[in-house]
């Protein structure tokens, strides 16, 4: 059984999907309405389990091995910041249609492979996901920093009465 590599890269305003270094799909950046990043346990590129790109006509599901979390995002940070279309969801709180997770029962892959799915087939499923966002990776990182920061002493003592 041959093992094929899957990769993504930007070419102009198009997102290319490559199999074994040969282009086999192209997604126009202007057609992207929403990107959903399904992560487990955190929000770093290594936590990504799969990405779903929504266009007008369909959804494109990409596995983390495609590079969608790395070069694709970080090479075009300004693009993603200008287009608030990146959403987040905990992978444990989503379901995908069974056909997108190939394999038989115990041998079923935990992550989907690359696939295009007609919009009407996946829209009802995605609409039930508890999405957070829109928020770019950079915005999400800074929100976590602010949220995890210890409150300054003046705020911690705000509820106490000052002795007179």
Short characterization:
The protein is an alpha+beta fold and 164 residues long.
How many DSSP E strands?
8
Strand order of the largest sheet: 7-4-5-6-8
Structural class: alpha+beta
Strand content: 25-35%
Share of helix, binned: 10-25%
- What kind of sheet is the major sheet? 5 strands, mixed
Low-confidence stretches: none
Total count of helical runs of at least 4 residues: 5
Distance between the termini: 81 Å
User: What is the H/E string?
Assistant: EEEEEEHHEEHHH
- Radius of gyration of CA atoms, rounded to a whole number: 19 Å
* Mean pLDDT across residues: 81
Shape: globular
Please give a structural write-up.
With 164 residues, the chain is α+β, with helices and mostly antiparallel strands. The protein is built from 5 helices and 8 strands, in the order ββββββααββααα. The protein has helices spanning 71-74, 77-82, 119-126, 137-148, 153-156; strands at 6-11, 14-19, 22-28, 34-39, 48-54, 58-62, 86-90, 115-118. The strands form 2 sheets. Strands 7-4-5-6-8 form a 5-stranded mixed beta sheet. Strands 1-2-3 form a 3-stranded antiparallel beta sheet, with no helix packed on it. A hairpin with a 2-residue loop joins strand 2 (14-19) and strand 3. The relative contact order is 0.16.
């Amino acid at each position: 059984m041959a093992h094929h590599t899957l990769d993504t890269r930007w070419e102009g305003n198009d997102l290319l999907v490559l199999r074994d270094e040969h282009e086999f799909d192209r997604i126009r950046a202007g057609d992207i309405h929403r990107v959903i990043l399904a992560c487990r346990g955190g929000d770093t590129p290594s936590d990504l389990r799969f990405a779903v790109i929504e266009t007008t006509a369909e959804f494109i599901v990409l596995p983390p091995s495609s590079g969608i979390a790395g070069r694709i995002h970080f090479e075009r940070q300004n693009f993603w910041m200008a287009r608030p279309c990146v959403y987040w969801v905990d992978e444990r709180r989503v379901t995908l249609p069974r056909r997108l997770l190939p394999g038989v029962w115990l041998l079923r892959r935990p992550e989907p492979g690359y696939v295009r799915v007609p919009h009407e087939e996946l829209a009802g499923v995605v609409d039930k996901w508890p999405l957070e966002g829109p928020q770019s990776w950079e915005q999400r990182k800074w929100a976590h920093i602010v949220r995890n920061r210890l409150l300054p002493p003046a705020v911690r003592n705000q509820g106490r009465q000052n002795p007179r």
